[in-house]
Automatic annotation (TrEMBL):
Region (Disordered): 1-21
Protein's recorded name: Cytochrome c oxidase cbb3-type accessory protein CcoG
Top-rank taxon, per record: Bacteria
Source organism of the structure: Caenibius tardaugens NBRC 16725
InterPro entries hit by this protein: 4Fe4S_Fe-S-bd, 4Fe4S_Fe_S_CS, Cyt_c_oxidase_cbb3_FixG, Electron_Trans/Redox, FixG_C, Ig-like_fold
């Protein structure tokens, strides 16, 4: 049975000094340490699951390998800043395809809107890095110092050898986790095994050490000490979310019409029918990782982790009352329930207009990106004309334009590519590495794997050629026979017209 006796540490919300008079008119309230109690239940188990999955993804991903052949890195997920590439398993994004990354970010944003409109601050409660690392550090607290009451006693105890030893041990574990967190981050930006070796042998780039130092410090401070303060004061997302929630959004709610007036089990037994279901045991407050009392209504400190639901359901079970005094519910459903109607199934709450619209937009962008990814060519040409001078009149009266052409071979094998002039009758071209006498209308370049070949091209057109639009085409000379085209304007004297 759950502990329903309000001991000093459990009866006074989360803060041992709760009874002390709080200074008024202060810009920033003094932090009240949170000693949240261990709890088990479906939502806690789901939180465990999300924590293990997200941490495993974060720490393990840089070590996954993906064979892309001999000319490309074999790290499954790699942000290769030096070569300006982003690799994600079978997908390789080049700088000129950055719109895919923009699309992913837009999808992430809309996904967050979708989650918020459907299940309130579920992101905050389960998957936000601040939540995940804070949760992890709170488990370390329990491991080293014990559960809520033991931690409270230790907090109040004077500094002595035992307290110092526990604190040092705990902070050392915090530091190790924080270092692993910062360390894992840089592995996304270079070959993980190689960077690891360089890092510990002192041969990594200074920026790698600086990044690890900064991320270690921020994880240590934000996860180990500031914790719920980040959610309540520092993060802008709760403020944005408040504007996005409406009466159709699922939030964690205390059903006050059912719980009030509160009374202890003994008092309620002595006066049947006079009190609500809340036995004022404070278990919902004791398990809350942000130390708030959900019975005071929806508030910015609630990250909707639902641990208070687990705690209260357990109390209700122990005293033989129906579960759900604290529950996920929409404000609309609360009104219905209060009016005596049966609660609607959760899936009905999820199917409202805003959620469906967000889902539609999210899926449309996703399908468009998949389509674009599936149909994109791995051959690309861009042409930039010289601006100064835009053209040259040669001694024989012909007109010359000069260009910088970028030929991209986005396959991980070398390929021959044919560049050709499309339009501009009578014109021929040559490059820096061939004589003008051998100028042609199409030429072949060997482009190494996964490389941009930058070539200077000169196009000469017969005397009297007027300024006009034409194009360069490129075709890969392999079985794929991919093509691309870049339109450009041929410049010449206007008087020729
Ligand atoms: S809401 Fe539930 S857990 Fe919270 S004090 Fe009341 S009975 Fe206890
Ligand atoms: S009030 Fe409940 S749902 Fe909100 S943060 Fe606390 S335990 Fe989580």
């Amino acid at each position: 049975m759950a502990n329903l006796d309000p001991s000093p540490a459990t009866a006074t919300a989360a803060h041992p000094d709760k009874g002390a008079a709080a200074p008024e008119h202060r810009l920033y309230a003094k932090r009240e340490p949170v000693f949240n109690r261990r709890i088990d239940g479906p939502f806690r188990r789901f939180k465990w699951f999300v924590m293990v999955v997200t941490l495993a993804i974060y720490y393990a991903t840089p070590w996954l390998r993906w064979d892309r052949g001999p000319y490309a890195p074999d790290q499954a997920v790699l942000i290769d800043l030096a070569n300006r590439r982003f690799y994600m398993f079978g997908i390789e994004i080049w700088p000129h395809e950055f719109y895919f990354v923009a699309g992913l970010l837009i999808m992430a944003g809309i996904g967050l809107f979708l989650v918020t409109s459907a299940v309130g601050r579920a992101w905050c409660g389960y998957a936000c890095p601040q939540t995940v690392w804070t949760d992890l550090f709170q488990h370390i607290d329990r491991l080293i110092d014990g559960d809520r009451n033991a931690r409270f006693r230790l907090y109040k105890a004077p500094w002595g050898p035992s307290k110092i030893a526990r604190r040092l041990l705990k902070w050392a574990i915090y530091l190790a986790i924080s270092f692993a967190t910062g360390g894992a981050w840089i592995l996304y930006f270079a070959d993980a095994p190689g960077l690891m070796r360089d890092f510990f042998s002192g041969n990594a780039a200074p920026v790698a050490y600086a990044t690890v130092a900064i991320l270690t410090a921020t994880t240590f401070v934000l996860g180990g000490f500031l914790r719920e303060q980040v959610c309540i004061y520092m993060c802008p997302w709760p403020r944005i979310q408040s504007a996005m929630l409406d009466e159709k959004s699922l939030i964690v709610t205390y059903k006050n019409w059912r719980g009030e007036p509160r009374a202890s089990v003994k008092k309620a037994e002595k006066n049947p029918g006079q009190f609500g279901d809340c036995v004022d045991c404070n278990q919902c407050v004791a398990v809350c990782p942000t130390g708030i009392d959900i019975r005071e209504g929806p508030q910015i400190g609630c990250i909707t982790c639902a641990l208070c639901i687990d705690a209260c359901d357990r109390v209700m079970k122990d005293i033989g009352r129906p579960r759900g005094l604290i529950d996920y519910a929409t404000l609309e459903d609360c009104k219905r329930e209060q009016a005596g109607e049966a609660p609607r199934p959760v899936w009905r709450s999820l199917m409202h207009t805003r959620t469906l619209v967000y889902s539609g937009i999210w899926a449309a962008i996703g399908f468009a990106m998949l389509f674009a990814l599936g149909t994109r060519a791995r051959t690309d040409i861009t042409v930039a004309a010289d601006r100064n001078p835009p053209y040259m009149l040669l001694s024989d009266g012909s007109i010359r334009n000069a260009y910088t052409v970028k030929l991209r071979n986005m396959q991980n094998r070398p390929r021959d590519m044919k560049i050709a002039l499309d339009g501009l009758p009578g014109a021929v071209m040559w490059t820096d590495d061939m004589p003008r006498e051998k100028a042609v209308r199409d030429l072949i370049r060997k482009v190494p794997a996964d490389t941009t070949d930058v070539v200077r091209l000169y196009v000469v057109a017969p005397e009297g050629t007027v300024p006009q639009e034409y194009g360069f085409t490129v075709q890969s000379l392999d079985e794929a026979a991919e093509t691309d085209r870049s339109d450009i304007r041929f410049e010449g004297p206007e008087t020729s017209q």
